[in-house]
Amino acid sequence: MEVHSWNSSSGNSATSASNTDSLLEPTEPEVQQIAAELELMKGYLDNLELQLKTGVPACPPRLPVDCANIEPDLKDSSDANIRQLQRNVYKLEHQIAELFACSDMAKDMLTVLGCSFCQLQRDMRDARQQYDAVESIKLQTDHQASLCLQRYTHLCHMFANWSDSKENAKEMQSVFLNYVESMHTKAAYLAEKHIRYKQLEEAENICMLATKQLIRQAKDVEDYLDALLDVQLFSQVSCVNPGYHTVGELEPNNVCFKSNILPTIPPFVSFSSTWHYRMMHMIKHKLMLNILPKHKTH
Predict the structure, then answer these.
(1) Distance between CA 293 and CA 287 in Å, rounded?
(2) Which one of 11, 206, 233, 272 has the fewest CB atoms closer than 10 angstroms to its CB?
(3) With 60 as the cut, is the pLDDT of residue 69 above it?
(4) Which residue windows does the record flag with biased composition (Low complexity) (predicted)?
(5) Burial per residue of 131-143, b for 16 or more beta-carbon CB atoms within 10 angstroms, e otherwise
(6) How many CB atoms lie within 10 A of CB 83?
(7) pTM for the structure as a whole
(8) What residues does 255 pair with on adjacent strands?
């Protein structure tokens, strides 16, 4: 806005100066005053040009100002300073056009930068979400690590360590070796087994012979008892006289025996209650006790 106002004021002053030169001849004080004003204007324009050039990135190259093209327009002015001022105004107009081009370029760059800024904001939001996820994983990992350390400490206090386990394993190994040494080998067990089988067969043969002998003795006793029973039966028989039929008397021609004369013989005897079974059971029990491994006494 300052540039445009200065352009209008400078144009008006140049027009008024040209009209004044055409009408009246300037005096010496007026020329000095105009020269001083021109010097001030020139300094102001230089400062303005420096300010306009400051911070302007990559402006397009300036258009070459051909002063020969403006010579016909400046012929009406007889003052060299005014013509120089008009040339400066012309150059300034070209510079202002260049600055407008730079402004348009800067607007385009600002638009691109705005899009880039929006994209960066989206990227920052995504990065923030990723950072939050990583931070959450880190916190969970720290929590789990503390729990793992707590469990490890608990296990170290609850369970035995490697040295204790090794000592216990040595003790168990010694106990196992002692137990193995107290056991019979397979060859010794087979030899002992054959010996026990032979002893069982011999004992069974002895039992069979004893059983046969016992049966013979029992048969002899039975024959003796039968003979003795026959003698007692004939001696204890009493015949009742016929014709008596009182109460409590028997019919004629019947035989009456005294009480507890006939022996009571059971119809069946179990094998487990016999002497042969008890003897075989006792022999087998003793043999099994001898076959079992003998533990060493320390």
Answers:
(1) 12
(2) 272
(3) no
(4) 1-22
(5) eeeeeeeeeeeee
(6) 20
(7) 0.27
(8) 239
